Amino acid sequence: MSRNVLITNPTLHPNAKKTLEELGFSVFIASDPSEDALIAQINEHQIVGMFVRIEKITGKIFDSCPSLRIVVENGIGVDNIDVAAATRNGVQVANLSLGALAVAEHTMAFLLALGRDLRRNDITTRAGQWLSFNQPSFNSVPIMGSKLLIVGTGNIGRQVAKRAAGMGMELLGFDPYLSRERMAEAGIRKVETLEEGLAEADFVTVHMPLTDQTRGMFSTQQFAQMKDSAFFVNVGRGPIVDEKALYEALKNHEIAGAALDVFEQEPTPADNPLFTLDNILFSAHVAGTHKTLMADQAILGAQSIAEAIDRQGLYALNVVNERQLQAQKP
Ligand SMILES: NC(=O)c1ccc[n+]([C@@H]2O[C@H](COP(=O)([O-])OP(=O)(O)OC[C@H]3O[C@@H](n4cnc5c(N)ncnc54)[C@H](O)[C@@H]3O)[C@@H](O)[C@H]2O)c1
Fold first, then answer.
1. What does the pLDDT read at residue 302?
2. Exposure pattern of 68-94 as b/e (b: 16+ CB <10 Å)?
3. What is the atom index within ligand 1 of the atom nearest the CA of 261?
4. Of 327, 328, 305, 310, which Cα lies nearest the Cα of 319?
5. What's the pLDDT at 138?
6. What is the distance in A from the centroid of ligand 1 to the CA of 64?
7. Which of 237, 243, 254, 307 does the annotation list as catalytic?
8. 117: alpha, beta or left, given left = phi > 0 and alpha = psi -120 to 50?
9. Is 230 helix (H, G, I), strand (E, B) or coil?
10. Less Cβ around it within 10 Å: N or C end of the chain?
11. Of the residues 45, 119, 182, 285, which is catalytic?
12. Nearest-CA neighbor of 52 among 229, 62, 44?
């Protein structure tokens, strides 16, 4: 088998080519991303792996290029790739979800900061007010053993689950579109109604898309259903949460605290009433990124290609058609 890889877009971060070469691959850059040109180039160089951005990787490409083993997409969406045709031809299609991993890390930072009361500790320590554990206002709660309700147990929700399980949290999930079995594979106990989950949870974290169903899904009633000792995190989309209702719930101590990365209106106005409260923590819709994301993602993609080629028969990271490939094995 050759060790030739095709990068279909010259704007991909240079770390992709560099890492592939360090891993012993020869790298070609497509001069023309059209279907026929790609087929010609893949067959000429017996390309085994492709690293793509937005180029269309069609069924005809998969059907015409038997040397292909893996296609890596430099992002989460694989709508530019004919995944069914890839599967039919035994080709792995992997996506790169460092953005999702970043959101999961940000969520963990919020959960830990809320549970450990870090915002208030920072303010009081700077002000010379030593917050001792025997004062009534000492608020830290344990993370280990506490119950985390994940609302939306898709990719990010399950990445959060993995990390929260590592911290010893008990995981509950609300997601009508994911089966009990699928959740159990991720170590999550499925709750059938949001109300049931909210009543049990010590922490609630939201990871749903904004849809007609999810818009305003967290309002007065939902905050009332939460324990008054519970914390609420939204890193999904702002309009999922009714900010006025959240303000009232926090002000009246119907819940203990909250953290938001996303807002009903972005950027949120400087006079947002939530800013007057001290039991809430903010970031400015930055959960899905970090300083080195594109550079890191290019390295991860190159490593995924190497993994699929060098560990033949095994799957690279984040293979989107892994189940289908496994199912069609003889
Ligand atoms: N803050 C950020 O920087 C940032 C970055 C990336 C993504 N996001 C948000 O995170 C969301 C989730 O991303 P993902 O990659 O995990 O998507 P995903 O599609 O993998 O998962 C979303 C999950 O939400 C579930 N869901 C849909 N409607 C629901 C409902 N009414 N009740 C409960 N669950 C419901 C779906 O079944 C799915 O499992 C995105 O849609 C986006 O809004 C935020």
1. 95
2. bbbbbbbbbebeebbbebbbbbebbbb
3. 1
4. 305
5. 83
6. 36
7. 237
8. left
9. coil
10. C
11. 285
12. 62
What's the helix, strand, coil split of the chain in %, to 5? Answer: 40, 15, 45
What is the residue whose two structure tokens read 């324990």?
227
285 is catalytic: yes
Under 8 Å between Cβ of 99 and 76? yes
Give the amino acid at 177.
Y
Nearest CA to ligand 1 atom 27: 208
Split at pLDDT 50, 70, 90, the class of 214 is very high
Tens of pLDDT along 43-93? 999 999 999 998 999 999 999 999 999 999 998 888 899 999 999 999 999
Measured CA distances, 270 to 160, 245, 251, 279 (Å): 30, 19, 18, 17
Query: What does the alpha-carbon distance between residue 249 and residue 223 come to, in Å, rounded to a whole number?
Result: 6
Tokens 């709660």 map to which residue? 141
As a whole number of angstroms, the longest Cα–Cα distance in the chain is 74
Q: What is the pLDDT of residues 4-40, one digit of tens each?
A: 999 999 989 999 999 999 999 999 999 899 999 999 9
Whether the link from the prior residue into 267 is cis, omega within 30° of 0, is: yes
Q: Which atom of ligand 1 is nearest to the CA of 288?
A: 3
Over the chain, what is the mean pLDDT? 94
